[in-house]
Amino acid sequence: QVQLVESGGGPVQAGRSLRLSCAASGYTDRAYCMGWFRQAPGKEREVIASVDPSDRTDYADSVKGRFAISRDNAKNTLYLQMNSLKPEDTATYYCAADPAIAGLYCRGHYNYWGQGTQVTVSS
Predict the structure, then answer these.
(1) Residue 39's pLDDT band (boundaries 50, 70, 90)?
(2) Exposed, middle or buried by CB within 10 Å (0-12, 13-18, 19+), for 96?
(3) Which residues pair with 58 in a beta bridge?
(4) Percentage of the chain surpassing pLDDT 70?
(5) How far is CA 109 from CA 33, 48, 55, 62, in A?
(6) Which helix or strand (DSSP H or E) is residue 81 part of?
(7) If we measure between CA atoms, which residue out of 49, 51, 46 comes closest to residue 67?
């Protein structure tokens, strides 16, 4: 079992930056695929960024060039640096994890989820 706890959300003005953190605890002594998702009111949850055990990253078009996902394995922490925030980035942000297959491959499905942190961007 892995427990994930997000932090760093809050209100922010458009154009500013925030950094979200996701602290992992529990059985972390293996390779994990990690991702950030968000869900806005009335919308489906969407994946916005992911990183695999080789630190290869992928981004949704809506955040590409503005957001950056990174991980600090020594601290068991995942980050999401969000720059040039827009009102449409307003959502609850979730981090997620899934054990990598053979320590390398991500299946695009996540077993473990945090409780979410709210980001509200005002214009």
Answers:
(1) very high
(2) buried
(3) 50
(4) 100
(5) 9, 14, 17, 21
(6) strand 77-82
(7) 49
Structure-token match 């695009």, residue found? 108
Contact criterion met (CB below 8 Å) for 73 and 103 = no
Summarised one tens digit per residue, pLDDT across range 53-106 is: 999 999 999 999 999 999 998 999 999 999 999 999 999 999 999 999 988 899
Q: How many CB atoms sit inside 10 A of residue 60's CB? A: 15
Which residues on neighbouring strands pair with residue 2, listed in sequence order?
26
**Six-digit token pair at 4?**
């994930």
CA–CA separation, 97 and 2 (whole Å): 8
Whether 35 contacts 52, CB under 8 Å? no
Q: What is the pLDDT of residue 103?
A: 85
Contacting residues for 94 by C-beta, under 8 A, at least 6 apart: 6, 36, 37, 38, 39, 45, 113, 114, 115, 116, 117
Whether 17 shows a pLDDT value over 80: the answer reads yes
- 81, amino acid identity: Q
